[in-house]
Amino acid sequence: MRSYECRIGRAEAKGEDDAMAKIMIASQQMTDGQIENVVAKLRDALRKHRGELGSEPVQQVLGVENLGMELLAPFRKRVEAMTNIIVRHVTVNRAQTPQAMLDATGRRQYTDRKVVDAMPRSEGEEVDVYLFKPRPEAYKNGFINDDDLEKEYEFHGLVPADPYSLAAVIEADPAFADKHRNVTHWKDANGKWCYIAFSRWDGERSVGVNRDGRVWFSEWWFAGLRK
């Protein structure tokens, strides 16, 4: 297992094609219908929480210059974060044993047997898997740990993909991990972080499954499912 951990713990020596990162860039501007939907959601939230906001201070805030731009800023931030998301629709065979699922990816395996046998299976034959990169500010000295990664899943409105769903992405497109190293994580029965990670190193396509609260470099893409 040590050799695989060494491989996934290094920074990308050759660099990654940044052009591939911008996957869901909008091809056209936001529509009038979308604008009305945003306004409606804000209106609903304000009505729901109106008892928490006094009329007088609200009136003062309404007089703030460029208030609209201030309200726009967090919405813009979320939209921009979505431009770094890759979506793959896959069919998942959840009837397979965990080992059969790994074998179906056709990769060299670096695994912990106990972690493999206890991998979560989840549900759903057809799923959309969302692969994203955390916001730059989420990294500390170029790394992000599993606990902070959970905050990024929350920000993107996702939960970590189960191993079967991510493996289905790789089985359908073995070359995907050549340029997009990808991973998902979960906690075992004892609350310890575990992961399944797909990558290519020195020409070898590999998969690692282990129990390890670790830190991740910025070249990794993280797999999630919609809540």
Short description:
This protein has 227 residues and is α+β, with helices and mostly antiparallel strands. The protein has helices at 2-8, 32-48, 55-62, 67-81, 98-104, 113-117, 146-155, 163-172, 176-179; strands at residues 85-91, 108-111, 126-132, 143-145, 158-160, 182-187, 193-201, 204-211, 215-217, 221-226.
What would your notes on this structure say?
The structure is a single chain. Helix content is 37%, strand content 25%. It contains 9 helices and 10 strands. The longest helix is centred in the N-terminal third of the chain and has 17 residues, at 32-48. By secondary structure, it is α+β, with helices and mostly antiparallel strands.
List its salient traits.
single chain, 227 residues, alpha+beta, eight-stranded mixed sheet, two-stranded antiparallel sheet, 9 helices, 25% strand, elongated, disordered N terminus
